[in-house]
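Final report, results section. Input specification for complex C-07:
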Amino acid sequence: MERIEHHASLGGRQEVWQHASTTLGCPMRFGVYLPPAALRGERCPVLYWLSGLTCTEQNFITKAGVQQHAAQHGLIVIAPDTSPRDPDGTLGVANDPAYDLGQGAGFYLDATQSPWAAHFRMESYVVQELPALVETHFPATAQRSLSGHSMGGHGALTLAMRHPGRYASVSAFSPIVAPSQVPWGQKAFAAYLGEDRSAWAAHDAVALIAHAAERLPLLVDQGEADDFLATQLRPELLQAACAAAGHPLTLRLHPGYDHSYYFIASFIGEHVAWHAQALRARLL
Amino acid sequence: MERIEHHASLGGRQEVWQHASTTLGCPMRFGVYLPPAALRGERCPVLYWLSGLTCTEQNFITKAGVQQHAAQHGLIVIAPDTSPRDPDGTLGVANDPAYDLGQGAGFYLDATQSPWAAHFRMESYVVQELPALVETHFPATAQRSLSGHSMGGHGALTLAMRHPGRYASVSAFSPIVAPSQVPWGQKAFAAYLGEDRSAWAAHDAVALIAHAAERLPLLVDQGEADDFLATQLRPELLQAACAAAGHPLTLRLHPGYDHSYYFIASFIGEHVAWHAQALRARLL
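Structure output:
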């Protein structure tokens, strides 16, 4: 583990670390915000943030303005990269020239298909390896919450439902809610999980809702001026699935807001407050 | 004038505009944040932000988190690019391969030397052309304040002092306060203003303080872990000049903070509040 950036920020410290991931078989970077409470030596609960297509660990930590809210509520914020990486092309990590497949587009699942299965194991990385690392190296409790944007919103919703009891709370901005039914998800799932659609439902939030073992309330914010709303995101499918299953959902549609980090920065404070409340109520 | 970006943001709207600058002889871009009050039709005072070396109009609007504070205080925020530009190399705008001269390094002055004098006229652009444009095309009053970072902190301090009565308030983050005495400033001033140093003092905050026609209070924030502190920034020179001249200065040194936007984001709220108070007190 090597610390490659550190910046004082809102009384705490924003850092970027790099480590050799055994799960992914490549070096990985993640952002860590340590709030003032953590710098004073207190152990703090952790909010994991999953970013969207094309992002690295940098986008959220530089553009969302999360630090002021994490400082206020005493949360550590962990923001991993969005896929395995192989910048020098020496590690055999598969890639694709498209922005929505391969490096930068890990979709927060463990791929089963060649050439992806060897390295594209973002579910195991985010759910197992990364928290184990965080809870060892930083003053973090084992209280965890999960949020994300777009592809990362899909990751947050599906990982929370696939691992009941592991997260105190979950939220999403502009999530892909039904990857099996939209082009981004269909392309990625066909590549990573194969053409047999029976394997897809286990990674599809709308499909998972019906059988969720835990009725963890969902907070979802969606901009109505989002260019991807009707083709890729389709929050009405999540709304219908939650209604049918009796799953608690707070879906907020915001007129005028788009898919950008300006949208995230506008509502991240409310998400952090939502997670902080759930984390504080969570027994260790 | 063409609007090339618009995003809902904190109840207001972050836009980017491009126009043909007659002062600079090239297309120029600037960010405009319109607070909720402006969208409701109220005329709002304007905070101008001047960015540092290598920046465009994008850095401040994406990384500083200024929108929430501008929304709260009802300020329009204008963030211009840092120099004339010539991306296709067809306009004859001079450039230099170094990051600290030429395009991206306008130093907020009107150059007098060849090959810079034809286009590098950022003082006239920021003080005259841009406000005239802003006050015509947006719901802006003629109440103006000025802030900036690093090279842009130099710009804020010098332009406020060179144009007494024009700005209600001025502040700076990590400013170059004595360009005549530090490498960044000496290189730029020799190129833009010539080797005769007698022309430099008129664009040097520390030199201007002694003769300032208006005792506009200065608010300056500086990180103590800033890599450029001892070589390029030297706030102690500003402190001494203000003390000698009886010029009001609030200089805050922040342990641990560096030169990055994480520093700006940590204190931008206090700067916006400072400017809002001065702007509200300003008669039109």
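The CA atoms of residues 57 and 81 of chain B lie 4 Å apart. The interface with chain A takes residues 7-11, 13-14, 62-63, 65, 67-68, 223, 225, 254-258, 260-263, 265-266 of chain B (CB under 8 Å). This concludes the modelling results for the funded period.
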